[in-house]
């Protein structure tokens, strides 16, 4: 079965994403993405898959996977029950980390860690326990502290003892083959045309399906209806623009594909629990930033330098 493409969505003003999710969750399926991922199980046990490896997991398991390595964790949780937090997930792009290594020769020690991640690295319980503390700190870190704590975590993992490589030496991810599947072509098309008018009928024609069949097909693969998935992508893009640009809320609304401001505000409030203007003020206040053009330009230059 071809793995499903996960759209990680690291924001422009950040070099990595760290977050938690519960169970069930939409990405709990056989999937891949171009980013590295460090996955820490905090609750539940079950069976997991990384590349061509399968095994049993329990709380405290820590695994690092390289770009395009398919993976999945399936928890043994009774049907109709949910878990608030199943894991902590850290995702970062190859471009960001490779750029850092090129800019700072001292980071070359991470090369072996990143190379071995192409087979999936299972860390020892002792290493996982220390890494768990560092990942919890990353969840609430801001600004330069995020970068400092990320590098400290990666340095720790690069020297961790008693790690195990999961996938066989012969395993090779095949992203071109994965991308050729219909659902992954549809998801890529959505991202590339996010600002354009998009309807379920339009995507059904693109996929060569009848609208009713496409609707069932899309929900089977993503676990949510098409319009909900599309609005989520657009609101995430709007969140990036609110933080990284001085565009007005109205301009951001239309740049992200919404055709009226009232619907945009309603969708944003439903997903982020605050209006767009409040979201911008909250983020900048939380980051200790003022709203002058000089401050915005300085923050953009810093992000570019780190990437």
What features would you describe in this structure?
The chain is α+β, with helices and mostly antiparallel strands and 307 residues long. The protein has two domains: 162 residues, Regulatory protein AraC (Jelly Rolls, Sandwich), CATH 2.60.120.280; 107 residues, Homeodomain-like (Arc Repressor Mutant, subunit A, Orthogonal Bundle), CATH 1.10.10.60. It is 48% helix and 17% strand. The strands form three sheets. The protein has a six-stranded antiparallel sheet with strand order 2-9-4-7-10-11. It has a three-stranded antiparallel sheet with strand order 6-5-8, with no helix packed on it. A hairpin with a 2-residue loop joins β5 and β6. α9 packs across α12. The longest helix is centred in the C-terminal third of the chain and has 19 residues.
Features:
307 residues, alpha+beta, Jelly Rolls, Arc Repressor Mutant, subunit A, 2 domains, 48% helix, disordered C terminus
Helices and strands in order:
Elements: E1 4-5, E2 16-23, E3 31-32, E4 36-41, E5 46-50, E6 53-57, E7 62-65, E8 71-75, E9 83-92, H1 94-103, H2 111-116, E10 121-122, H3 125-140, H4 144-158, E11 164-165, H5 175-179, H6 182-192, H7 200-207, H8 211-222, H9 226-244, H10 249-255, H11 261-272, H12 276-286, H13 293-306
Parallel strand pairs: 1-3
Antiparallel strand pairs: 2-9, 4-7, 4-9, 5-6, 5-8, 7-10, 10-11
Helix pairs in contact: 3-4, 7-8, 9-12
- The helix fraction, in percent, is 40-55%
Biggest sheet descriptor: 6 strands, antiparallel
Which descriptor suits the 3D outline?
A: globular
How many β-strands, per DSSP?
Answer: 11
Structure classification:
alpha+beta
**Domains (count):** 2
Unreliable spans:
289-307
């Amino acid at each position: 079965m071809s793995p499903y493409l996960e759209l990680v969505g690291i924001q422009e003003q950040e070099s990595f994403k760290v977050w938690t999710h519960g169970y069930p969750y939409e990405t709990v399926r056989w999937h891949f993405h171009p980013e590295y991922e460090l996955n820490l199980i905090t609750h539940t046990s079950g069976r997991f898959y990384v590349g061509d490896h399968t095994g049993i997991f329990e709380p405290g398991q820590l695994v690092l996977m390289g770009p395009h390595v398919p993976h999945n964790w399936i928890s043994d949780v009774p049907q109709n029950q949910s878990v608030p937090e199943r894991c902590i997930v850290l995702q970062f792009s190859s471009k960001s980390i490779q750029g850092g290594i090129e800019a700072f020769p001292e980071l070359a020690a991470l090369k072996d860690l990143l190379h071995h991640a192409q087979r999936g690295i299972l860390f020892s319980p002792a290493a996982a326990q220390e890494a768990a503390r560092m990942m919890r700190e990353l969840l609430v870190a801001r600004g330069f502290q995020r970068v400092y704590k990320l590098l400290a975590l990666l340095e720790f993992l690069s020297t961790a003892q008693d790690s195990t490589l999961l996938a066989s030496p012969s395993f090779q991810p095949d992203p071109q083959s994965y991308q050729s599947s219909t659902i992954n072509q549809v998801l890529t098309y959505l991202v590339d045309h996010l600002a354009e008018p998009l309807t379920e009928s339009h995507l059904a024609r693109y996929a060569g399906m009848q609208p009713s069949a496409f609707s069932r097909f899309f929900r089977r693969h993503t676990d949510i209806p098409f319009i909900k998935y599309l609005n989520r992508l657009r609101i995430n893009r709007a969140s990036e623009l609110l933080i990284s640009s001085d565009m007005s809320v109205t301009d951001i609304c239309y740049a992200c594909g919404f055709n009226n401001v009232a619907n945009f505000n309603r969708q944003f409030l439903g997903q982020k629990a605050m209006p767009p203007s409040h979201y911008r003020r909250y983020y900048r206040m939380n980051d200790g930033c003022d709203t002058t053009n000089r401050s915005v330009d300085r923050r953009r230059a810093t992000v570019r330098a780190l990437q």
